[in-house]
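C-alpha cells for chain A. Residues wanted.
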C-alpha cells in the first residue's frame, strides 16, 4: 500500500505528514516507540533548539492546555459528547470546542463552572502566595 492510499492515522504514525524541515525533531527511536538513549536530547529539548518560536508558543499555552485536557478528561469520564455538554450547560457548541482546544484564550471561570457542573464534576481554585508548588498527579 502506498503512503497516499494509507489512512491518515497510519500516515501520521509512519511520519509521512511531516515535512523535511521538521523530520529531525523525531529520532528513529521515537517513531518506533523504543526507549531513547539517555544521552540523546528529549523531544522538548530538540524542539526548543530547532524551533524556539514553537517552543515559546507551547510554553505560553501550558495553562490553557492543562485546563483543556482536564475538561476533556472529565467529559470522557462522564461519557458525554460535546453536544451533550453544550445542551446541559446551556453554552454553545463552539464555546465547548474552544474550551477543549489546546491553544487559544482561557475560558472564564463561569464557563468552566458550567462545563464541570454539566459533566457532574467538581472543581476548586487554589491561589497561594510564594513559590509555585510542584504539580500533583490526579
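Reply:
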Amino acid at each position: 500500500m502506498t503512503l497516499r492510499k494509507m489512512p491518515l492515522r497510519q500516515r501520521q504514525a509512519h511520519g509521512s505528514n511531516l515535512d523535511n524541515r521538521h523530520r529531525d525533531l523525531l529520532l528513529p527511536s521515537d517513531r518506533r516507540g523504543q526507549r531513547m538513549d539517555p544521552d540523546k536530547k528529549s523531544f522538548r529539548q530538540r524542539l526548543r533548539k530547532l524551533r524556539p518560536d514553537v517552543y515559546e508558543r507551547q510554553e505560553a499555552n501550558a495553562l490553557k492546555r492543562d485546563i483543556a485536557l482536564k475538561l476533556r478528561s472529565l467529559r470522557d469520564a462522564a461519557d458525554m459528547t460535546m453536544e451533550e455538554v453544550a445542551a446541559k450547560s446551556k453554552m454553545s457548541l463552539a464555546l465547548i470546542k474552544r474550551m477543549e482546544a489546546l491553544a487559544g484564550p482561557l475560558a472564564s471561570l463561569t464557563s468552566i463552572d458550567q462545563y464541570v457542573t454539566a459533566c457532574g464534576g467538581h472543581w476548586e481554585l487554589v491561589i497561594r502566595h510564594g513559590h509555585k508548588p510542584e504539580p500533583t498527579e490526579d
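Residues 6-58 form one domain. Confidence is low (pLDDT under 50) at residues 27-31.
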